[in-house]
Batch of 3 targets.
Target 1
Amino acid sequence: MMVLGSASQASAATVYPIAPGYQVNVRSGPGTNYAVVRVLTPGSQVRIYCQTTGTRETGPYGTSTIWDNIASGQYVSDAYVHTGSDGYVASRCA
């Protein structure tokens, strides 16, 4: 029984909704000082592959320094993603 492997696979497969009514900037790194690479439209959902610390951002789900990696070189502030937690819900990015 591979509990650790199953847990990692489960967290990578989880989809989280973006805050309703918000267009969210996707940045090339974990912070507002990184370039915007695209914009998520209201109603979007994202997979979180890993999370890391970045610049402090305030959004509809509070103020956070956690940034969610949603694809290679693409990050969104966790303050705009409804994860149901104020902490980490995925592994830390390497």
Target 2
Amino acid sequence: MTTQSKNPMVQSTQDILKKAVKAALERKQKLGQYSVMWKENKIVTQGEDAPQTQK
């Protein structure tokens, strides 16, 4: 997300969600699991055991 909200409740919610996603990704990495994300209009997998995505 690149836009910042002026509403403190919205900003707080965004901050909490970012923190939760970061924690979940770190946990998956520690467990040796791969993650799947959406970046630049593409599906991206990260991790040693991540399947190769088809282009």
Target 3
Amino acid sequence: MTSEERAGRRLDLVAAAAAALLVVAAAVVGTVIERANGSLHVNWPPLYASWSPHLGPGTPAAVVIAVLVIVHGPPLAAWLPWRRLVVLGWAGSLAWTGALAMIDGWRTGIAGRLTTAYEYLTVIDRFDDLGPALRDFTHHILNNAPDHWPAHVAGHPPAAVLTFVGLDRIGLGGGGWAGLWCLIVGTSAVAAVLITVRALAGEPLARRAAPFLVLVPSAVWVGTSADGYFAAVAAWSLALLALARRTRHPAAAALASGLLFGLTCYLSYGLTLIALIAAAVLWLTRTVRPLPLVAAGAAAVAVAFTLAGFSWWEGYLLLVERYYQGAAAVRPYAYWVWGNLACTVLIIGPATVAALRRALAAAPAAGRALRPSAGPLRDPADRLVVLVLAALFALLVADLSGMSKAETERIWLPFAAWLPAACALLPATRRRAWLTAQAVLALLLNHLLHTGW
């Protein structure tokens, strides 16, 4: 091992330790603030969770899956045929996420998550007539409006709640089916990220990233909140955009990417920031040819909702007002602007923190290559760095906006889904150790805390 490699490994550990200190600081300072005046509105800062050590029916499966991925994940990712690897990545993520959810049992961990007073399933019957419901949607966003929507319905454009209305209409109503929908669709983001990384940075890096995309602590929230589903829709939009220059049907891929991006924007207002990652994808592919069809697809979704009577911009402005009618009015920005980053550390894990350290170290070289005169980025690692840092940049913009004070462990899943791809930059000899750290963190989070979402 060279001195440069030893220095790199030391810096990886320093980065992970610094991130752990950030979490500890957020927990200590947050606890002091919450006990002093209750302004954080979370029980276990910086997470929306409560202390609740427990075991559950999913415990043995979660431990077994973690061991299997740690031991067999890297070699399987190296030699499996590509298509099988993508399917296995999705299946592995589904198994890992499902096992973590089942630590809390079927009712608490999956079937009951979307049936609480804050969630979507409580208003399904108000959409029996879709036309009037959509035309009247913005009239129920504010807290002082008659029959105001629950927090999550008011906080999102109507495509979010319409998803569960649609499931109910086809006979898949209730919390069980809604939970399974979020679990199955949400974990497909792993396949989308793998496909995107391969298209933009090459197959070897995608293979190296695969086990880390599966065994990620964010799985604690992917399987228990609709935000995991949102993350998958956004991820597939970007995957199709990356494929638009490589597939046999580039026009269809570009149009589908636009349709999914439009749907993403009507699932969550804040996910318009996915456009920042899309811009990086276009730059890496060195073409704007897909843009007209992408724009057409996104516009088709916007036109459909507008003609149905819902105004996205009006809904967003009312959401901002509703946001400050609730806990956000007292949640201190000065704490959450860095407390949110502690939440991010917990959902991406120490391995991703170390990998992002390497990505940031490589950023100057990649930045020099960003100049138009430099031509296309030829180093696959530089291309991966650009993709990952674009996702990190989108997350930081969301943080600075102040529109996500707390609960970002679920809200930022669509951005965080891309960050573990940076783990392809970690040295091969340390991958199992870093995978172990990822698994241990996830298991501790799910066994020691009862998460709110």
